[in-house]
């Protein structure tokens, strides 16, 4: 239908004979000359009428960021863009931007600066379209990616094609050898090949075979984006056959010289090729497996893809082949891959604290304890490991779950709400119980007429009320909350749901309440709920509630068309209760916002805009979205203003608190719940490095002395992750000259016992009820890398009770009176994760018991008012 090798501006076929690209250079279409570059198709391509369209081209980019590629438009030199192929914006692998809000179809082949052959196909159906994608792979039966979309994005003829990239960001792309056709053969596809890559889960062995003879194999590429390969146990063909080796190979696999193409440190790629062949030459794969050794590092992550290259009379043809795993799958929690979950894995888990980061591969992070795959080692991972350990080693391996017998005074209440309790998971926030209680009271004759438009505790796919039948959240987590990372994948970062009946805030007072937590906290992150006047969260968004809309770096509302209502409360990684009111009962619209504030008369901020602003029609759908840093939401309620206690009555205080004396640096765990709280682990984090882990500033190798060896550590990690400095750096996220100045200022100093954080695990005098373990799980053990960013410790095989006496953790805060107040406190209790409150107090006011002194009564009152909803899940 159209093709161009870009050898001349008016060359090719299927294009307007007088229309130039305007960006040709050295036989390619490149954005180094001009971007974008359009060319009109002649005739226009009625792709829908043809049934199937293939688009094939060679592609390369100067950078692995931003975007660039080939796009198709329903207008000449613009109009509706309905297909984009190449490097979609913000993605890490080659793909297709499906347009129409349908997301991205990714290949899994990482973007680099090499030339790649990309083939896209759209198969137009009677009621839906199927998209397929091949990258460096001509096996028609095995596309790298495939998806079927309901309805149609491409619904008119294509009139023009464009080559473009994000030139403003310095990205240059090139396109060559473009073919647009209606058959697989026209773009060089090859019918199915009967070859297989087999991976033995028990041994890690990888082998190649073919059910029928596959001759002329001249290369292969195995890829694992998760980093599953260990080259030390890779048995290469080159190592067995190379004639230039010492000793020389024996030719037992092939009589040609093979060459390893994989970089020396790569864990993501195993590639070999032979350039020493004549046309039609190469090795033959058959039913006898060709072993490549045992380079697969055993883990639950199974993402390996395989391509073999055959020689077709001098033409190299890459063909994707099937990958088959045999044997029992590796159980999550078996960090070292030896087939069990034991204390060796426990040691590995602790060593990962403070080390896991986004620069690791997924397998590296997993093997150091990142069980949920978000490249962060935190208390959520400890929760998963403890559960896995218990499951693998028999019931009770993790000191059996502690159950409490209700007091007689509560039995009557429990009987009244028993049916409701059966429908609410233990991991659900207390607020949902509060709402349930309100409904129970109402059913017994209350005169309250509160209208609940919609509510959800996210405990099940069909949970909640007020939602359209059969409609579920796409990213609900099994833990009982809403997340922007479904199943640990950052590729789908939003979830939407339609209301059963439209919610009309016009001429009404409408309240919205939900719990929200940002997985990370920086000016680049945002997230929250967006309200839409159309179904399925289309383009008619009229209100947004959450964190950092428009770069505020605070919890705020985007009123759409009326600016932002900023709460002036900086967002961080703690759960916060967000309450919003939209009052359109008058001529204008009044927005109000409350953050962990339950005083209806005193919102954190208000904003009045003329008229109805952007809200001029009922809401029909809701979307939870974020920037991809892992956002969480729980306990959503949308109601009218007729019963404000449903919105503004705080729950009873049921969490432990962390009290911080900014003058002395002392940090204490306080229990004001009125009952013992059993804990099996806790974590205190600070995004700005306000923690004192007990080390000596400048002692980067943690040997107790600041000496020349620490300078070597600084030099070797300059520009890298600050975790390499053992928590004794200047507090930045990366190693900088400020760390050198800190080392120089403290040169010659020795560690002073008792300085900084005092863990339960390593005190000279153990805390009563907090036994100390030693890599055996039978007591408290600290994470392997305490730092200015996190301190954590765990009790794998038991729990300790925090009673009414507050527990000091020593001078663990190093910010001083003017330091940043960004500490986050979480703990594990009875198999649940809880986010506790953090309070900063005046010098010397930390009490030694949970009973407040008069001078600290205000703190407790504020704590009761601002307490986060307890039992919040991961």
TrEMBL record:
Pfam families: PEP-CTERM. This is PEP-CTERM sorting domain-containing protein. NCBIfam families: PEP_CTERM. PROSITE patterns: EF_HAND_1 (PS00018). Residues 404-427 form the Ice-binding protein C-terminal domain.
